[in-house]
Amino acid sequence: MKKKSLYWQIPLLLLLVVGTIYIARQGNEQKELQETMTFRQNEGITFDTGYKITYESDSDYHGELIHEMTLVDREFSMFNEKSTVAAINRGETPHISDIYKEVYELSMRVNADTDGAFDITVAPLVNAWGFGFRNEQLPTEQQVDSLLKIRNQYDFSAIAKGYACDLVAAKLDSLGVKNYLVEIGGEVVTRGHNPKGSQWRIGVTKPAEDQKNEIYTIVDVENKSLATSGNYRNFYYKKGRKYAHTIDPRTGYPVQHELLSATVITDRCVMADAYATAFMVLGLEKSKQLLMRHPEMKAYLIYTDEQGELAVWHSDGLIIEDV
Fold first, then answer.
1. Considering only CA atoms, which of 165, 155, 181, 169 is closest in space to residue 277?
2. Phi/psi at 269 (nearest 5 deg)?
3. Residues 6+ apart with CB under 8 A from 116
4. Any idea of the CA torsion for 236, 240, 242, 247, to the nearest 10 degrees?
5. Which residues lie below 8 Å from residue 22, measured CB to CB, with a gap of 6+?
6. Alpha carbon of residue 160 to chain centroid
7. How far does Cα 141 stand from its chain's mean position?
8. Cα 68 from Cα 75, distance rounded (Å)
């Protein structure tokens, strides 16, 4: 009887041994994969902001990636006097490239979809409130009314960085790179996995004025684009009143509502960038209504509740990890 009992145990023991070997082999293969990965990191300054591009490749493509960012800078940078938009804002008539046409048309599409909350002709108003490429004094009510009627200068800063991320990502795709993260001024595109072999995780900063960059939550972003807009960093106080950098193009005044930060996740970074800005103008409830029309888009919205405490609303299905 003892021998018979032992015979029945042998297959189970073999199964356990094989299973252990398989698990160990899988662990070793994963470790070997991580050890053989060659991830590079290119970083620098473009559009007067920082960029960081992390990608898996045996070759360094920094030169090619800088070229893509330069294409966008020479069209839309407010800080480049030779850019197309700078020339237009000076009243000149430069050659209009396909890139400029595409971003302009996308801007018009988002403008219509958001009932004017996103508007690239807001540059004179942004300048008047002291947040643009010119520093001016607080405008009077008459000046605001006048600027609302005259929209002859463009500001693509709320969409150009997202478009540049898309161009850099497309270049990496064309070079055969499968795993990467492109980040320009906080706008992000991810593909594949990170150096640890897992999906990319992006931190959303706590909307606070102390400049500590404290992470409020972490979002898993798999083969998607992400952009965040907020009023908690770019602002100033004058005569005891706070003025935030998001200008409502429909009223001409800085927005005053409960929404502090809008993070948008979607396929194209250019759209995530534009809609994140639009949400900061629309506010919490109207942003939620707009998202119902766009199932391809998800958002993480941080706002102040009735008690003045930080609160969060986010789209269903968004994978987040509070910290």
1. 155
2. -65, -30
3. 249, 250
4. -90
5. none
6. 11
7. 34
8. 12
Predicted pLDDT of residue 150: 77
First to last CA, the chain: 58
Residue type, 312: V
Please, what's the largest Cα pairwise distance for the chain?
102
What is d(CA 134, CA 272) in angstroms, rounded to the nearest whole number? 27
Cβ contact 183:201 at 8 Å: no
Q: Which amino acid is at 262?
A: A
Spell out the long-range contacts of 313-316 with Cβ–Cβ below 8 A and sequence spacing 24 or more.
Answer: 313/284, 313/288, 315/291
Q: Which pLDDT tens digit goes with each residue over 242-268?
A: 445 677 888 878 877 789 999 999 999
Helix (H, G, I), strand (E, B) or coil at 269: helix
Count CB atoms within 10 A of the CB of residue 290.
19
**Residue 27 pLDDT > 50, yes or no?**
no
Mean pLDDT over residues 11-34, rounded? 43
pLDDT at residue 246, rounded to an integer: 76
Q: What is the dihedral of CA 278, 146, 132, 312, to 10 degrees?
A: -30
Backbone φ/ψ region at 121: left (φ over 0), alpha (ψ -120 to 50), beta: alpha
Of the chain, the percentage scoring pLDDT greater than 70 comes to: 80
R_g over Cα of the chain: 25
Please identify which residue in the block is written with the tokens 């908690």: 232
